[in-house]
Every structure is written in structure tokens, then in C-alpha cells.
Amino acid sequence: MERLLAMIGPEDDELRASLRVIKAFDEQVASGTALEDLVTLVTSLTGARVVLRDDLTNRILVDGGGDRVAVGAGEVGRVTKAAVDAGLRGRRAAELTLDGDGDGDVGPDAVLAVSVEHAGAQLGLAWAVRGERPWRVPDALALECLAKAAANRLLREHERSRLVPPDRVQALERLLTTTLTAAEAAIAARQAGLDPDRRYRVTVFRERPVAAASPEVVLGRALGAYAAAGVPAHGCLLGQTPVVVVDDSAAVVDALRAAPLGSWSGWWMDAGVAHPLTVADLAAGCLVARQSLALARVEGTGRVGVAEELGALRLLAAIPTTMLEDHPDVQALGRVVAERDGYINLAVLDVYCETGSLRKTATRLYLHHSSVDYRLKRIERMLGFPLATQAGRLRALISLQLARLLREGSAG
Fold first, then answer.
1. What angle do CA 130, 133, 137 make, to 5 degrees?
2. Nearest to 410 by CA among 336, 327, 343, 313
3. Cys bridge to 403: 66, 124, 181, 333, which one at CB 3.0-4.6 A?
4. Same-domain pairing of 18 and 144
5. DSSP conformation class of 281
6. Alpha helices in 128-195 (DSSP H)
7. Measured between alpha carbons, how far is 237 from 255 in angstroms, rounded to an integer?
8. Cα distance between residue 182 and residue 47, in whole Å
9. Is the preceding peptide bond at 386 cis, omega within 30 degrees of 0?
């Protein structure tokens, strides 16, 4: 690197600065520098205030080892919204223009931001607040180097903090995926840290929009919600689905509904809860929990579906998958989902079908009523029938529930 720097002429300032960025990061990463110090390094390289939003532990890192108090909640919300609106992904830095002054904060009007990702799943967001001079190529490069290093560090730190004996995880997975006799289930339950004589609920989680966060992040957030409520919980990943087994307690549902399902990190966490089961029936509980998630109603910006509260709606899960795949209304909703911000359109449709009011829908989802009106008109065109009548809203709501059952793989 020193030889390359010596070969570059004095007029190549940006190239020289870019090589210095790479050299500085190589040295710091190789020496195991703490994540907080890497944020400080980028601050020194860019001359800007640099912020790293860590979704795995729900914290904010800034120069000087600060926490979320050092950055206004309004700034976090505005940057997050701008990143979501711009579809910022792929570890490529881009300049974002921010709207308004969220929460009364006086914050920046524009930032240089980059998504912190691993395998296409978002783990956080990093941004720099511009000073007097315009952004240069080395500034973007420094922020992108931080995103790459942060993704690796966050995953390693997260795995260390959640270290669980492999045999315990394997026992829990066996309970959740295999039909066992009472004696076999009792043995597996003890290995998983469960009481064979107690009843448990299976809960499954999904982030919205899909693939907005890694399954590990969603599982960690779910376990954190239960821990905050004092509810004992045991979790694992089944494929890419976060699944948590919790004690049979009224506090379980209360914990989920009290949790901040509307996330400052730009995604929401939806949950499905099965009815209480013996340890021998936990595998069946996974299907019930997925059905509950698919049939859940919107509550604020999050959805929590509880099996006992669904009543006759669970009959929809008995409809054969082939019938759902071929139905025109379900196919039309698939096209709605495929659009940009399709998950917002589905939430608008869901709440509007419940309330029948444009303004109540806007209030519930924290959207402007003109935005809700525009989205509803577009959804109507794609569905091919009006939503102004009760019959039309009922048809749309049933189609919406069927489409979710198909997506969750929990149809008949």
C-alpha cells in the first residue's frame, strides 16, 4: 500500500485519500478494533459526524462511544424513513434527503448513508452528517468499509451473546418438527430446558417487509420482548422462521402487544401464537402458530394473531393450497404485494376493510389521508372491484387472509 501511495501523483487527491481509507481499515480490522472505535475512525476520515444503528442489539453508536441519547430520535426516524423510501440496500453509499424534523428535533437535511447487511438481510444502517464541504469518493468508501466491518462484528457479537449448547437447540428443534410419543417428548423437553409436565405456547415471527432483517435479528428481538416482560422463552430458527416456545401464561400475549412491534429500525415484527399445548404436541403448534400469524389483524403497525381469538377464521386454513393458488383475487393480491411498498398497501387494505374509513386508516397507520386515498384507488384497480361497499371490503379481507395463508405455507 505504501508503494502504491508513493506512485500516485499529488494531483490525485481523491485516489490517494481512498487508498488511505482502505489502509486504515485493513489495519484496524486486522487488530480487532472495537466497533465503537471503527465509528470514530470514519468520523476522523470524513470530518463528519458518523452514526451506526445496530438492529441486533437495538442501539445507536456514535463517535465517542455514545448511545441513543447522543442522537435525537427524530434524526433516527427521519434517516430510517428516507432509507426505506429510497430502497437503500447492497452496502452502496448514497446521499439521502430527509423530510421534516421528526419529534421536534432540529436535525440534518441530508446524509450519506449505507445499509449494514449480511447475505442480503439488513442488520442496521450507517450514516454521516455532512459538514461544510461536499461529499467525496473517499467519504463514501469509508462509510462502505464501516458497513462491511460492522456486519461481521455485529453477527459475531450477537452469536456470542446468544450462545446456547447445540444439544439444547437440537432438542428444541426435534420437539417442534417431529411427532413424538409422550415418553420421547419428555426426554427431549428436559434436554431443551423445558418442563415435561407443563403446557407451552409456540409463537412464530415474521418481519415486515419480508427480508428487511435477518432471521437472527428477528429471533433476538422476539426473545428480547419476552425477556423484558419476564416471560421464560426458548427460541430457535426452523429454516428461516424464528420460533419461540414460551410458558402458558396470559403474560405471553400481553408481552407481545406491549412490545414495540413498530420498529425504529424501519421494519415491523408480526407474531402468531398457538393455543397452550403439551410438549408432545409442540410440532402441531408450529402449524397453528403460522396460521394465527397469517390470519392476524393489524394492531397499530404490528400484527399479533392468537389462536383462541380467531374463531371461525381458522376454517379458512382448511382450503386446499391449489385452490388458493388459482383464485383470481389471491393472484391479484400477489401483484399488489409485488409492488414497491407492497407491504404498506396490504396494511392499508387490511385496516380500511376493518374501519371503512379513509381517515381512521390514515390515523392508525400514521399515514397522510391523501396517501391512503391514492393507495386504495390503486389497489381497487388491481383487484378489479370496488372497496366502498361492505361486500367489497369483506371480499378483499377474505382474499387478504387467504393470500397470507398461502404465503405462510399454512393452508390446507
1. 80
2. 313
3. 333
4. yes
5. G
6. 137-161, 166-177, 182-192
7. 21
8. 64
9. no
Per-residue pLDDT of the chain (412 residues; tens, 9 = 90+): 444 444 455 556 677 778 788 888 888 777 777 888 888 888 888 888 888 888 777 778 887 544 444 677 778 888 888 888 888 887 788 888 887 654 445 567 888 999 888 766 778 889 898 776 788 888 888 888 888 888 887 777 665 555 567 788 899 999 999 999 999 999 999 999 999 999 999 999 988 766 667 788 888 888 878 877 778 899 999 988 999 999 887 778 877 877 655 555 667 788 999 999 999 999 999 999 999 998 887 655 567 889 998 888 888 988 888 898 899 999 999 898 888 778 788 889 988 998 899 999 888 877 888 999 999 999 999 999 999 999 999 999 999 889 888 877 766 5
Instruction: Show the cell assigned to 68.
Output: 441513543
CATH of the domain at 399: 1.10.10.2840
Cell numbers for 182: 409422550
Q: Are residue 277 and residue 293 in the same domain, yes or no?
A: yes
Spatial contact of 90 and 113, defined as CB atoms under 8 Å apart: no
Q: Name every residue whose Cβ is closer than 8 Å to that of residue 43 and which is 6 or more positions away in sequence.
A: 49, 50, 63
Containing structural domain, residue 72: 2-161
